[in-house]
Amino acid sequence: MSDPHLDDLAETARNRGLKLVRSRVRTATKRRFGKVGLTDKGGKPVFGMDAKGPTAKPEEVEQYLRKLGAKDWGASLDVAAPQRKRTGNPTPRRHPANDLPPRLKPKPAPKPKPPPKPQVREAKPSDAARMAELIRYLGHEISEKQVRKNLAALKKTDETPLVATVGKQVVGMCGIGKRIVISRPALLGRITTLVVAEEMQGKGIGRMLVEALEQRLRKAGCQLIEVTSNDRRAEAHAFYRHLGYERTSMRFAKKL
Questions:
Q1: Which of 23, 44, 139, 249 can pair with 35 through a Cys bridge, CB separation 3.0 to 4.6 Å?
Q2: What is the pTM of this model?
Q3: 119-124+155-242: CATH superfamily
């Protein structure tokens, strides 16, 4: 007649990938009576076994099986059996469902730096080469050496041109003129040259230069600012009208 407790113990062992071995001794006075042990599926001793058979009490085997807990078959052999060489590709150990390593949040991509904003300042001798390029864009041939010479002369009369920069690059320039004329009660201001690099046009740089020039001439005492623009430059005419300039005369010139 089977023992229900031992039957349950055998089922628990099977769930662990093990086999419950029961003693064949039927005499209660003999040493191995009622003893049990555990082997693996191949019959190799795992717990409570010696060369002659089972040696453990059912309570001891039950306690051993409980200690295996949630360990899988592979893990139970690692703990219970002597280490043996494995063949083939080892099966990776699984994490218990409630013991997974935390997922690391990916680092956000760094935000791109905004492009530098245009700035307006007085021209410097080191700007001469770039200023010569911009002047030639208007169709006037001039050398870097001549630009340096002109800058030195204009500095003495407090008429140093303004330049617009983006980062370290000069992208526009505006020439300043102021003079006394016999027909006016105050200084006459003048935009002598205004040019913005072609790739930077339409970004408000020309307006920045003109507004900075107007502020400087107003501070110097000018009450009127004039500018001359080639007849062919219709876009420039529209630009000046947009800033409040009006056409008041025609310009005539003669080379000497």
A1: 23
A2: 0.56
A3: Gcn5-related N-acetyltransferase (GNAT) (3.40.630.30)
